Amino acid sequence: MLRSTVRRTCVRMVDMRWDAQKLDLEDPTALPGLPTVRGLLSRVQVPEFPGLTFHEVRAKSALNAVPPETAMPFGHTINPYRGCSHACVYCVGGDTGVLMAGGRQKRIADLRVGDRIIGTEKRGRYRFYVETEVLAHWSTVKPAHRVRLADGTTLVASGDHRFLTGRGWKHVTGTGSGAGQRPHLTTTDEMLGYGRTVETPKESRDFRRGYLTGMIRGDGTLTSHRSRRGDGREGVLHQFRLALVDVDALLRTQEFLLQEGVPTTRFTSSPASERRRAVHGIRTQRERTTADVRALVRWPDSPSPEWCRGFLAGIFDAEGSRSEHVLSITHADDDVLQRTTDAFAMLGFGSVLEDRGLPNQVRTVRLRGGLGAHMRFIHLVDPAIRRKCTVQGTVIEDSADLRVVALEDLGLEMPMFDITTGTGDFIANGVVSHNCFARSTHEWLEFDSGTDFDRQIVVKTNVVDVLRRELARPSWKREHVALGTNTDPYQRAEGRYRLMPGIIDALARSGTPFSVLTKGTLARRDVPLLAAASRDVPIGMGVSMAIWDDDLHTALEPGVPTPRARLDLVRAITDAGLPCGVFLAPVLPGLTDRIDHLEAAVRAIAEAGATGVTVLPLHLRPGAREWFTAWLAREHPALVTRYRALYGRGAYVPAEYRTWLAGRVAPILARHGLDRQSGGTARGLAGSTGAPAGSDAGLPGDPSAGFPAGSLPGGAGDRVAAPAAPPEQLALC
What we know:
The chain is an alpha+beta fold. A 7-stranded mixed β-sheet has the order 3-4-26-27-28-29-30.
């Protein structure tokens, strides 16, 4: 519980923890998930934050002391929140059907972490359906768009959601040029998958009777014959018997019979051996129950669609088979074969009777159509034997007509859901859908990947009052206080609780210099307060910009404000006369370290008025490495070899790469007037000092880099550190 609620520190000096990690509640057990705690005021769930729980607590302290040995340029931190409520941008409607590993569908709203579902995997030139796991599941509220396909499939998703087309991954919405430019769906695109399917109807009595008819006529024994007893007298022997290898179908049959008032007993027909599975059975030899079974499986004069649905499920469980391309039902009885053909037709399926002229009169009814027809059959009739219903290992073909025929803005916001999976995708209403990597990339962005961090938000509701008392103590030395070093003070929760205005006022009135690091554009609300406070105390402002490239930002950092939105925040801060430093990080080798990319990013940052820039290379720690390399292999396979060379010996790029990148960045910073130093902290990138990666001298992966100019207050009371390492949470997210 402690690990999932109180996150790993993002200011990491040789993996050192500090007092900022503490919740400092009036009761140390006041943590999410515990049923009764003294420090917990309430747990709040509100419509504007679906999927989030706010744990409102009373803190016993507000100021967290930073140990001197961490060499940070501030003595204390304030963390009004624990956890981060930035929402994911990828999402689909709650009714979207997700294909499960056993072939059934489940609404995405009803999925749970640990569920086994179907994703895809590319092998050479082809993409295959494979089994994967739901690693995270959450909801948000987003403007809704409807996508209609030629085969009748409809999908409701956010504009940022992506689907796989014959020309790669495409967002639902976008523009061909300008700020919104990105690959997006048009009516010239065709999605990949098996396409339109159906929801499984609820079980009915007609379905049960149809299933029993198909199963028992297909594979059961139902007899009444004269027999001589042991005493020499003749009598009638009645018997119903059904023996199967697949226990699921046997249990369904036994349950359906019991619901119809026919009890049976279980027995083992054949025990398991090294070569064969056990065969189990059910039976009854009573005259009345045998007669009841015979009545249940009598052919109906006018079969209903529900009876046909149940009959096909039963006969498929009894005598059906399915391979990658063929779904068929085999039998020798004319009535069974004709009823099978008729049931297919009544439910809208095409079929063909194949007669190979076998001596035993066995013939086959084959379902027409490819995987799309197979999945509609499976979802409609719902067989009990799931091994016949899986798609694992099947290649994705384009037999379904999945052309995009309409894209509609529904003009409303609605609850939507998304998941993180092991393959990075899932099957949504029969088409391949991208999932969000937010939870997976939490690890390489120095977050834990568990869902508690962004779904269980601890709110210190009394933090302002506690802070005022602490600042009024005679012992308070008015040292530099940093906000945003562990969790973002301007995350979405701040829009509800408005704790920052009181914190800003308390610090300014006490004469305490402070700094704020954020990636949340909600900080624009408080720019006038910050500007007023700057007339009383020195203030530093920092904004993090993890990835400049829009597509990479969307793929790796969904749910947080876009780079351009954060540039607008920088501009608002500097327009108010405040300094503002920017963290441009992480630089991704081979993806965002091109001169033109760095030039465009630094130029835009300079034009927004930033007073300094720190550029940091990517580092990959165990756990995060697996997620990022899986994404890289899918999206940029040509770079896999290079990343193995760069990160083959650890989490950090080698000194040669840092030196190379520093040489590339330095003239760009100088050209835009951003090569200044601040407070004795080294500027730009590592490489010039030759310090080993991960040393105590500075930021892991970038030992000489520090806080950008403007992000720290310049007045008295600062604790000097050289060099100072910026908090990784905000530097890399």
